[in-house]
Amino acid sequence: MTTNVPPQPLVTFDEFSKLRILDPAQFEASEQLKEECQEFTTRTGTFNDIIQMFMNLMDEKASQIEREKLQAIGLRNRAEREVDGRKRKHAQMQALIKERQAELDRLVLQADSLQKVQQEQASLIDSMSSK
């Protein structure tokens, strides 16, 4: 019967006379894994920096888009007010034209009436002076 008892660690000395628990192949593999982990951590940090820059850029662009959107809304509102203002001004001008036309018609009638009175007075004067 075999029992699965983990092997006892092997204590060795490396080329620099340092005491090692792992055998040299495992030590090399763990050192390589350590370097790869450090490289991965560095790459991850760089990636996070790039993502942060990208997020800052997107926030800036979102703010710029929001400003442009508000400006466009303001311009649209101003254009709509201008259209309404022009319609109101047109209506005022039409009312003024009607008022002036009515005054002109009244003055023309008054002038015609005065001219008639003048002609009647002139013919009365002529008839009185010829007698």
From TrEMBL:
<dbReference type="GO" id="GO:0097546">
    <property type="term" value="C:ciliary base"/>
</dbReference>
<protein>
    <submittedName>
        <fullName>Intraflagellar transport protein 20</fullName>
    </submittedName>
</protein>
<dbReference type="GO" id="GO:0036064">
    <property type="term" value="C:ciliary basal body"/>
</dbReference>
<keyword id="KW-0175">Coiled coil</keyword>
<dbReference type="GO" id="GO:0097730">
    <property type="term" value="C:non-motile cilium"/>
</dbReference>
<dbReference type="Pfam" id="PF14931">
    <property type="entry name" value="IFT20"/>
</dbReference>
<keyword id="KW-0966">Cell projection</keyword>
<dbReference type="InterPro" id="IPR028172">
    <property type="entry name" value="FT20"/>
</dbReference>
<feature type="coiled-coil region">
    <location>
        <begin position="62"/>
        <end position="117"/>
    </location>
</feature>
<dbReference type="GO" id="GO:0060271">
    <property type="term" value="P:cilium assembly"/>
</dbReference>
<dbReference type="GO" id="GO:0061512">
    <property type="term" value="P:protein localization to cilium"/>
</dbReference>
<dbReference type="GO" id="GO:0005737">
    <property type="term" value="C:cytoplasm"/>
</dbReference>
<dbReference type="GO" id="GO:0030990">
    <property type="term" value="C:intraciliary transport particle"/>
</dbReference>
